[in-house]
Amino acid sequence: MIKKNVFLRFIFLGVLTLGMIFALGFLGYQGWQTSHFQVTNLNNIATIHLSSSLSKPQSSVIFTGDIMLDRGVEYQIEKHDDWFYPFSKIKLLLTQADMAIGNLEGPIVKNPPHFSDHSLRFAFSPNVVQSLSRANFKVLSLANNHTDNMGKKGFQETQNYLKSENIFPVGNYLTCQPNNVVVKGSLVIWAFNKTFPQNCSENEIASAAEIIRQHYPKKFFVVIPHWGQEYHRHSSTAQESLAHRLIKSGADLVVGSHPHVVEEIEEYHGKLIFYSLGNFIFDQYFSKETQQGLVVGLQLYADKLIYHLYPTDGNLSQPSLMMIQKRKTFLDQLAQRSSIDLQSQIKNGEIILQRSQKNVKEGSSLKKISDSKKPIFSSSIVKTSFSSLPGQLVKHLYNIKAVPNVKGLAFTPDGQEL
């Protein structure tokens, strides 16, 4: 009887072991087949996962909207005694790409003054720089109407602080010179501010874009304009006119900021225009629209471009991915405001465009060309490293400690594995 029980136990353990091996192999295979950026919603929880696809993209980039780290945002940081507080619920999305790019809506200075809660002047503590770096921001636009809030000295301080953490500033609040670009791999990135009446005419901007395109004929040319009317969910005629000229002048992608709400997506001559990604981190709690944003994940392949759309909800200046039903409603409404040809793809959260082979070239170095005293495109090479993405499955659950019914890796909001 004892021998029979031992034998049955041995058989049971063997079957259990084989079952576990099969299950792990199946999950690994499924992860291997999945593309890099993809939103999955399980049990009504918005999650993300990442794995290697059959072909690895040349580059992967995350684009975010406006980042403001003063006033109410700073209050929440101090209340929680955590400088990483604004990024803690969205970190794993940001870190799944080669780099994140956003618009930094204010200067970073050594001794930031305390402005009132209703002030329209901002100044950020140097403590934010490490948090931005930890959140995988490699390029930040300074071409907006707030980076001059502490004058020229504050603007220079901001650039120095960012560079100290290998974050590269791009653009200027006043000028739109074509020699102020960041080049990373197959991308060239340029930004300008169009909110001041005295700076940068449409002709000057178009001419600068043409010069950049001529100098980098095979790079993927990203333009980040700060423009438009605040709190308008549809672009203005002036925005549309300028966006179309940018595309005609050689831009491959336009990603706008400033309106504080998400505006429509347009396809023009086979290129995308995101007129505004809205707020990413801000303290504008007075409306639903100003607390929602759009994060865009871009994968560049030799033959195609894949854009992944991630609607976000802000809660006390902490963005996180939207829940499934809210995400669906948001994307449906965004699709209705956008180009007709894109509507079905926007509703699905993914836009795929074919890529012209003549504009594809792999790159590897990072260059920052920004000294206006030097000739245009004189070489000022900054050495840094960008780690490649691991080919593994990652799932990140937001706003919850754990979900028992969700299979896969589970994380707390701060990214710790459960």
Question: In a nutshell, what does this entry contain?
Answer:
Helix content is 27%, strand content 25%. It is α/β, with parallel strands linked by helices and 418 residues long.
Could you characterize what this model shows?
- The protein has 418 residues and is α/β, with parallel strands linked by helices.
- Helices cover 27% and strands 25% of the residues.
- Strands 3, 4, 5, 6, 13, 14, 15, 16 and 17 form a nine-stranded mixed β-sheet that branches.
- Helix 7 (237-248) links the parallel strand 9 and strand 10 (253-255).
- It is globular and about 50 Å long.
- Residues 23-46 and 361-418 have low confidence and may be disordered.
Q: Distance N terminus to C terminus?
A: 42 Å
Poorly predicted sequence stretches spanning 5 or more consecutive residues: 23-46, 361-418
The largest pleated sheet is described as:
9 strands, mixed
Secondary-structure element order, N to C: HEEEHHEHEHEEEHEHEEEEEEEHHEEE
Shape: globular
Number of helices: 9
Give the overall average pLDDT. Answer: 81
Strand content: 15-25%
Q: Structural class given helices, strands, pairing? A: alpha/beta
> C-alpha Rg, in Å?
23 Å
Number of strands: 19
- Helicity, as a percent range: 25-40%
